[in-house]
Amino acid sequence: MTAQSRAITAIRMLAADSVQKANSGHPGMPIGSAPMAYAIWKQMKHNPKDPAWQARDRFVLSAGHASMLEYALLHLFGYPLGIEDLKAFRQWGSKTPGHPEYGHTVGVEATSGPLGQGIAMAVGMAMAENHLAAIFNREGYPVVDNYTYVLMGDGCMMEGVQAEAAALAGVMQLNKLIVLYDSNRITIEGSTDIALTEDVQKRYEAYGWDVQQVADGEDVAAIEAAIAKAKTTSTPSLIIVHTNIAHGTPKEGKASAHGEPLGAENIAAMREFYHWEAAPFEIPQDVRDHFAAMLPGFEKQEADYNAMFQAYQAAYPELYAQWQAYHSKELPEALLQDDSLFAADKPTATRASSGTVLNKLNQYLPNLFGGSADLAPSNKTELKGEAFYAPGDRTGKNIHFGIREFAMAAACNGIALYGGLRPYCATFMVFADYLKPALRLSALMKLPVIYVLTHDSIGVGEDGPTHEPIEQMAALRAMPNFHVFRPCDATETEAAWYSAVTSEHTPTALVLTRQNLEPMAGSSREALKGGYIIDDCEGTPELILIASGSEVALAVHAKETLAAEGQKVRVVSMPCMDLFEEQSAEYKESVLPKAVRKRVAVEALSDFGWGRYVGLDGATVCMEGFGASGPAAQLFEKFGFTAERVAETVKSL
């Protein structure tokens, strides 16, 4: 057995033994795809001694259920992941969770497992790479120059987000995106023939990809040749590698090898097949030496890059300063001191206010990079005067994502993961349902991606209930580590953007109106606290009205009616429940005193979630159905969003 064969066998045995010890996991794909994974990592530009090296190639295991494959690679190639970590696979507190988690395990580039999202995030990484390369590279100084590799399986190939992302990658001609497809023809329920029958090669060629086939997944030389050829193309590359799941075991080619341990007898047979005499978790010295011999080459790649980058710094000091600005988490002092961001003087739709603020921010934040799902004129997300990112102009800061909401959000996660850019994307609020799985990964990975979600309620009007969000707000608010900001006017919209761009570990959704909203006299930077007193009474209030967005003005008008009748009313604007909950107990008590039990929440959306603020003695004025088609003003009246209805609700308490 050659040194290379023994190295690949070590990957396979670590995967099989770890899954067996955990009595949980997916051994089949790691065993079958080990040769192609080895081929990728052997030639990949990376340095285990400096895992966060900026110029490294990126590797995304889109088939995240095969996590033991990545953990075995990380361990054997010299990343800080020890044998004890592998023995703790899938256990509480371990560095080797069931699916790879970004920020948890050193060397993992993206949290993967929800199938199809890995390749979609990789598309974002590849976009970020060539966008930054176009801005910063100069002749002889390729300071941004890396490939993005993906290892995906049959499950990813069936997911819709994969198709969206692949089409986008083809349009954008992302030639440094190389995807290896482990075609083992098995999923949990059996052969893929029951659900996947199209010609994948023809489909990807139709997307604009270069496609190659490797007939034998054990042929490392053929895989290496395919990767080398992929590096010469002007399009993204798909390499279809035909493998057998759990190759070399009695379960080879069987669905039972996908998602359950092989069993002691089958692992014993596997050891015999591969002539592997080492005990579980024991790596022979010759195998360790084989992997260690690659390390000097990896380290030299980084050393050469660092020398080149130092020369670049001297040759292009202005570009280097710009590079530092792109990669800094600190905001420019001028932005922090710009009071014009918090100025509003006329009725404006918050989507329009958002567009104004976004273009102001572009003057301070040159690394903004984003766009819309074919709705930029409606979402107001175009950076004026900036080009559109395209194969002919990689410097463009505006992105045409096309009508691919899920892939758009996933790609923005990839852009954020790549580093150096501040991604944002936009669509209608009702289509948050299409974004939701990627939003969840933003929150899980602690990526401060910004989501602009316009047309936020029945104010959508004539488009009717298919386009009028009702329950989406509650769904987003339910997500951990996710800020949902629904501003009441231009000032609060500015606060929302300020909160979003200053967030380091939390994504933000800006939920914005189609219709004009009047400037509120009491709105201010206090909105950054998530909830605050926007209109108060003298002394202790008898009752509190709480609202967000367009309904804040409604609450203020209702207060005027109630105050004329001698009632002491406080109005609280609650643009972001999540931020309000992050404030001190003292602050929250000052805004919503526990002693004031008469409370009414007003929001033209589902009432789900408002219970924590109105309590058992309070009430809500919210939507109970899906809306209707008609002029927005008429819908608000028909569904009871009037000052009179709010006042009546208060009196009923």
Question: Topology of this structure?
Answer:
Blueprint: H1 3-22, H2 28-43, E1 58-61, H3 67-77, H4 83-87, H5 117-136, E2 148-153, H6 154-158, H7 160-172, E3 177-183, E4 186-187, E5 190-191, H8 200-207, E6 210-214, H9 220-230, E7 237-242, H10 264-273, H11 285-292, H12 295-315, H13 317-326, H14 333-336, E8 348-349, H15 350-364, E9 368-372, H16 376-379, E10 388-389, E11 398-400, H17 405-418, E12 422-428, H18 432-445, E13 450-454, H19 472-477, E14 483-485, H20 490-502, E15 508-511, E16 516-517, E17 532-535, E18 543-547, H21 551-564, E19 569-573, H22 577-581, H23 585-591, E20 599-606, H24 611-614, E21 619-623, H25 632-638, H26 643-651
Parallel strand pairs: 1-2, 2-3, 3-7, 6-7, 9-11, 9-12, 10-11, 12-13, 13-15, 14-15, 18-19, 18-20, 20-21
Antiparallel strand pairs: 4-5, 8-16, 17-19
Helix pairs in contact: 1-2, 1-3, 1-10, 1-11, 2-3, 2-9, 5-7, 5-17, 7-17, 12-13, 15-20, 17-18, 21-26
